[in-house]
């Protein structure tokens, strides 16, 4: 089953809240477990961290339906938290948008050039010539090829 991801930005850039704590706070603040939303459930939220384990400030929430994802994007973008206990862990204003998955052409390696865009860089080859034989082909009087050069039988 495929899912839709919601990109949530504005998370605190620190080590303090763990992935589970951030997921629990988001669920408590925005009611992710509502049946209408079709949230993929606990342990599906992807919080991006650097090598030291510090949060990079954004996360991805997974939903089974695009309608549920659109509802949660509206909830996150329109709400301002008034609870001081939650605002100590999560910032009062988060931003969310639907995540666009990369297409196959976006996943190309960095060094590859796009042939359609760089046609002026494309070097065309000349058509190949007919192969040159090492020994001449002798055609006999009855038009049979002998491939013997100038040797006789």
Automatic annotation (TrEMBL):
Keywords: RNA-binding. SUPFAM superfamilies: RNA-binding domain, RBD. GO terms for molecular function: RNA binding. Residues 4-101 form the RRM domain. Residues 80-91, 138-153 have a biased composition (Polar residues). Residues 80-153 are annotated as: Disordered. Residues 125-136 have a biased composition (Basic residues). Residues 112-124 have a biased composition (Basic and acidic residues). This is RRM domain-containing protein. It comes from Eucampia antarctica.
């Amino acid at each position: 089953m495929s899912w839709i991801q919601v990109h949530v930005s504005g998370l605190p850039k620190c080590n303090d809240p763990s992935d589970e704590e951030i997921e629990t706070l988001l669920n408590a603040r925005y009611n992710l477990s509502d049946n209408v939303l079709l949230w993929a459930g606990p342990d599906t939220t992807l919080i991006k961290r650097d090598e030291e384990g510090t949060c990079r400030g954004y996360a991805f929430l997974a939903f089974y339906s695009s309608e549920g994802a659109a509802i949660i994007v509206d909830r996150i973008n329109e709400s301002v938290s008034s609870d001081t206990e939650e605002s100590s862990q999560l910032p009062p204003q988060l931003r969310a948008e639907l995540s666009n998955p990369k297409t196959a052409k976006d996943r190309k390696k960095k060094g590859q050039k796009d042939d359609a865009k760089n046609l002026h860089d494309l070097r065309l080859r000349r058509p190949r010539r007919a192969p040159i034989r090492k020994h001449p082909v002798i055609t006999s009087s009855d038009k049979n090829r002998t491939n013997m050069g100038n040797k006789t039988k």
